[in-house]
């Protein structure tokens, strides 16, 4: 029996979301899934990115809307801009109109993970406002709830919520994901992967 195929579609300017994506991939693979990391196209000019101090992009393939129907499930990695998904991700979703018209993503499970600058910077609103994208495509949103006890850990400030894994980047982007945040991301991947596997049996 073939492995369930899952795409992790993400945008990451400073690397925080990609760091979580790598952990999500580990969890998905532990659940027996075949995983592909896909970065959405950049919309900012190279000159602007350099002025913003953004590092070079990783070698992950560029996401194309036409490829999404070939996956059994999709996880979306979202950096937050003012409480919502970054414009780059929104631009990518705007390119999926033909998939919407044909119902190509209807019934596919989807999950969300995210990065914000601060603890109250949109850890939940980013997910909530992105659910509209999934809803219009007829996708099934799979939150993690409190399936990981790490979400109850209040020993230090951390990202993540019942909606999905998350990290806090800090106002200047210098804070990197905590071990706890990475573990929640890996948990989400495995949790999501098991659900995808059940749906594709």
From TrEMBL:
Tell me the domain of life. Eukaryota
User: Which InterPro entries is this protein grouped with?
Assistant: Flavodoxin/NO_synth, Flavoprotein-like_sf, Flavoprotein_WrbA-like, FMN_Rdtase-like_dom
Q: Its Gene Ontology molecular function terms?
A: FMN binding; NAD(P)H dehydrogenase (quinone) activity
- Which ranges carry the Flavodoxin-like domain? 6-192
Give GO cellular component annotations, separated by semicolons: membrane
**Which Pfam families does the record associate with it?**
FMN_red
Family, according to the entry, reads as follows: Belongs to the WrbA family.
Which named protein is this? Flavodoxin-like domain-containing protein
Provide the species name.
Chrysotila carterae (Marine alga)
The uppermost taxa in this organism's lineage are: Eukaryota, Haptista, Haptophyta, Prymnesiophyceae, Isochrysidales
């Amino acid at each position: 029996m073939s492995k369930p195929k899952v795409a992790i579609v993400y945008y990451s300017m400073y690397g925080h979301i990609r760091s979580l994506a790598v952990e999500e991939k580990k969890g998905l693979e532990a659940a027996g899934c075949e995983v592909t990391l896909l970065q959405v196209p950049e919309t900012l000019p190279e000159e602007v990115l350099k002025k913003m101090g953004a590092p070079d992009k990783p070698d992950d393939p560029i996401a194309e809307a036409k490829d999404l129907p070939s996956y059994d499930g999709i996880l979306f990695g979202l950096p937050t801009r003012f409480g919502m998904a970054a414009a780059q991700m929104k631009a990518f979703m705007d390119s999926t109109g033909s998939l919407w018209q044909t119902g190509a993503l209807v019934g596919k499970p989807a999950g969300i993970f995210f990065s914000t600058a601060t603890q109250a910077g949109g850890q939940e609103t980013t997910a909530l406002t992105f659910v509209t994208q999934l809803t219009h495509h007829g996708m099934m949103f799979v939150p993690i709830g409190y399936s990981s006890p790490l979400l109850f850990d209040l020993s230090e400030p951390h990202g993540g919520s019942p909606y999905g894994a998350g990290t806090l980047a800090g106002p200047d982007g210098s804070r990197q994901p905590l071990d706890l945040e990475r573990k929640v991301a890996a948990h989400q991947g495995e949790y999501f992967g098991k659900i995808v596997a059940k749906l594709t049996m």
